[in-house]
Amino acid sequence: MSEIYPRFAGKTVLVTGAGTGFGAEIAVRAAKEGAKVAVHYNSSKAGAERTLERVREAGSDGIIVQANIAKWDQIKAMADEVWKQFGGLDVLVNNVGDMSSEQQGWRELTQQALDDVIDVDLKGTLLMTHEFGERMHADGHGAIVNVGSTVVVNGSPRAPQYAAAKYGILGVTKSYARALAPEVRVNTFAPGFMETERLKSRQDWKDGRREQVLAQTPMGVIATPAEIAGTCLWLATEESAHLTGGYIVANGGNTMVGA
């Protein structure tokens, strides 16, 4: 990795779902770049504690906050805690999501699987953007990054509810980018497949999906979460100050979108 410079010196960053996977790497990368980090979790407290340890090992500090982001009252309580501890918030990364990893095909869709994904990925992202965005707007500054997915390009015959929820995030991003401008910028970061433990445990990944994705990826590699955490955070830096309502893809060229 190239030399890291402090793009977030003196800033505060909240990352949802930061106990494991991509969220943990975003939190640690933000800490390496000077941020104080609020590490959110819903049920993986041990993971959040480990992430906070890594934040401190990176030379920064932070707090742990807990909430089920499908519940607005819990989001409000979490926001209260962040403002109490940090005095405000500069960056929100809405990373947490449910992709129904155990679901192997569209015929396996259940009411519970549908509700879980829509509640967390779509409703949760909207509520987080709404609640935190309103407070950031009142403070006169801030940046929100909603973690989407390139699944919106090709859809998902495995878990169509996941593709639907991630597509909905684009609407959330564009709507609040307009509502909160110019004080708060809102953008979507869309990673492709990442070699997380969760992905590597999926049966379709073990049965040849990995090789198929690699064959369709011009860069010839599937990124680890740490390798693209900095790209995600770029959307919250001064370098992207004129970008809002945007959709940035980082998937090694697997899906090339645009004009």
Helix and strand arrangement:
Elements: E1 12-15, H1 21-32, E2 36-41, H2 45-57, E3 62-66, H3 72-86, E4 91-94, H4 111-139, E5 142-147, H5 151-154, H6 160-180, E6 184-191, H7 197-200, H8 203-215, H9 225-234, E7 247-250
Parallel strand pairs: 1-2, 1-4, 2-3, 4-5, 5-6, 6-7
Keywords: Oxidoreductase
Protein name: SDR family oxidoreductase
Family: Belongs to the short-chain dehydrogenases/reductases (SDR) family.
Q: What do you see in this structure?
A:
This protein is of the alpha/beta class. It has 9 helices and 7 strands, in the order βαβαβαβαβααβαααβ. The protein has helices at residues 21-32, 45-57, 72-86, 111-139, 151-154, 160-180, 197-200, 203-215, 225-234; strands at 12-15, 36-41, 62-66, 91-94, 142-147, 184-191, 247-250. Helix 1 (21-32) packs parallel to helix 2 (45-57), helix 1 (21-32) packs across helix 9 and helix 4 runs parallel beside helix 6. It is globular and about 50 Å long. The model has no long low-confidence stretch (mean pLDDT 92). InterPro entries: NAD(P)-bd_dom_sf, Sc_DH/Rdtase_CS, SDR_fam.
